[in-house]
Write a structure and sequence with these properties.
alpha+beta; 11% strand; five-stranded antiparallel beta sheet; 5 strands; 303 residues
Length: 303
């Protein structure tokens, strides 16, 4: 019996250690995503402060402070590309501003014709680094082509694709994460574009206390509706800026989401309170501290 107990304790200890490793990887991934997003917001503000921003079409400016700010942030913050590539992506900002001012660009068509091919190539390369969807890319390039056509052939009517693209702007919101990389999503169980669907009532009764985002605290047990199933999880971590939330299941699995996705769960009654109970051992606090220390130890970028 003693032998069996010793073996069982060893197995449980290893399982606990593995869950802690998974939790640390998840928190580190989410911290990195939030810090990169903060950097993207600084890039966006730099774009808005540029003198050349005056007169740029609203849709072009929204693209630059949205997806393209994330491209530049990813290249510079992550240091995944060479300095030359980072400068190339930075250079797109001024070129895009100039080329989308139709009247101005139309006065120097030779410059526009020379500028477009390398700029479009850089745009495609950059958007690929942030896994920007092909649909969104098509919408943007349809609008970009329309601006350039108007500069080269004044008076030409906008294409249907360009008109449709104008309704699909993507900007950086200060209270929302703009992009979580695939590997970060994999480590943290990130739930993007969360859309709850109908499912059976959860097997446990709900508490009458109203659950709101503002009174959520680490240690709160809830049920989430995902993929037509109710799953029982505990809020185990909130990011420093309040943009990301991570829940942990009894099996150690991670389920993370943005503030907007969590608010969507509240508005559709797809999250239900089980119990307000604080974590006493502060294990995840220690995990977060270690993850943050590792993150801070990396090279900081001064903007």
């Amino acid at each position: 019996f003693a032998d069996a107990l010793t073996k069982a304790l060893a197995v449980w200890a290893e399982q606990d250690a593995e869950r802690e490793r998974q939790a640390q990887a998840a928190v580190a991934a989410l911290l990195r995503a939030e810090r990169r997003d903060e950097y993207a917001q600084k890039v966006a503000q730099q774009v808005l402060d540029m003198p050349e921003a005056v007169g740029v079409p609203e849709e072009a400016l929204e693209f630059l402070v949205g997806p393209w700010a994330r491209v530049v942030a990813h290249a510079e913050f992550e240091s995944v590309l060479t300095g030359e590539q980072s400068q190339r992506f930075r250079g797109v900002i001024a070129d895009l501003m100039w080329s989308t001012k139709v009247e101005q660009a139309g006065k120097n068509r030779n410059r526009l014709v020379r500028m477009v091919p390398p700029m479009v190539a850089a745009l495609r390369d950059g958007l690929g680094t942030i896994e920007y969807s092909m649909d969104d890319q098509r919408n943007f390039f349809a609008q970009l082509m329309d601006w350039h056509q108007q500069a080269l052939r004044p008076g030409q009517a906008s294409s249907d694709a360009a008109v449709a693209a104008r309704a699909k702007a993507d900007t950086v919101r200060k209270d929302e994460i703009g992009w979580v990389a695939h590997e970060e999503a994999r480590h943290s169980g990130f739930m993007s574009d969360f859309t709850p669907t109908d499912a059976e009532e959860p097997p446990v009764s709900r508490m009458t206390e109203e659950l709101r985002l503002e009174n959520m605290q680490v240690g709160t047990w809830v049920e989430l509706l995902t993929q037509q199933k109710w799953i029982r999880v505990q809020l185990s971590w909130m990011s420093p800026q309040g943009k990301l939330y991570m829940f942990t299941g009894a099996d150690g699995s991670s389920h993370s989401m943005s503030k907007r996705s969590l608010n969507h769960l509240f508005s559709t009654q797809s999250i239900r309170l089980l119990a307000q109970r604080k974590i006493t051992e502060k294990a995840l606090d220690a995990v977060a501290d270690r993850a943050l220390a590792n993150s801070v130890a990396e090279t900081d970028i001064v903007v």
